[in-house]
Design goal:
209 residues; alpha+beta; binds FE2/S2 (inorganic) cluster
């Protein structure tokens, strides 16, 4: 004989308690299904390239200052410099590291900021074009660019300035051939190469800044 406490007096065999239990189970099942769908999508099965392992605390040393940031491991150095640290001198031209407009120095060597993940730069010294002027003292490369009219639209200029500074840091008496070779990875659509080379050579002839 069935347990009467689980049935209604109307003989339907389905009481209010059963209904509430069933509803609760349905809600729970829906929630679990939604969560599972989200997880599958987050794994890249539902959406392309949306996988993220979350932000991580990262310390970057930029222009002599330490910055502690919460960054996703996929964060590109160029984006972090521009978007998180508001250092917009380095430019994002083509996402392909082809122009050199994103040139910065890492541990004294010229590097394209869009070619590095920020987390790769932990423990290294990053220098952007902003470090070459404090508002009063301006690096000789910058004043040389102005003197020799080495810029037009100026979009490539910060990258060229950093690349030129790196050449002259490496060899304060760099030759024309050396300068041209070291600046070979930077492109200027406006064709200001002559002025840039004149600037670099003039500083090199003085033995460097
Ligand atoms: S000054 Fe315009 S791209 Fe170089």
């Amino acid at each position: 004989m069935p347990d009467q406490s689980q049935t209604t007096n109307r003989g339907s065999g389905y009481n209010r308690r059963d209904f509430l239990k069933g509803s609760g189970a349905a809600v729970a099942a829906t929630a679990i299904a939604a969560q599972a769908t989200d997880e599958v999508q987050a794994q890249g099965k539902g959406k392309p390239n949306v996988v993220s392992s979350g932000a991580t605390k990262v310390k970057l040393t930029v222009n002599g200052k330490d910055h502690v940031l919460m960054l996703e491991p996929r964060a590109v150095l160029l984006d972090v410099l521009r978007n998180d640290l508001n250092l917009t001198g380095c430019k994002d031209v083509d996402d392909r590291t082809a122009s050199g407009a994103d040139t910065v120095m890492i541990d004294g060597k010229p590097v394209l900021a869009s070619s590095r993940l920020a987390i790769q730069c932990v423990g290294q010294t990053i220098q952007t074009v902003e470090s070459l002027s404090d508002g009063k003292n301006v690096d000789e490369v910058i004043t040389g660019f102005v003197k020799h009219d080495a810029m037009q639209c100026g979009f490539c200029t910060p990258g060229f300035v950093m690349a030129t500074r790196a050449v002259l840091n490496k060899n304060p008496k760099a030759s024309l051939e050396e300068i041209q070779k070291q600046l070979g990875g930077n492109i200027c659509r406006c064709g200001t190469y002559h002025g840039i080379t004149k600037c670099a050579l003039e500083i090199a002839k003085k033995g460097g800044a």
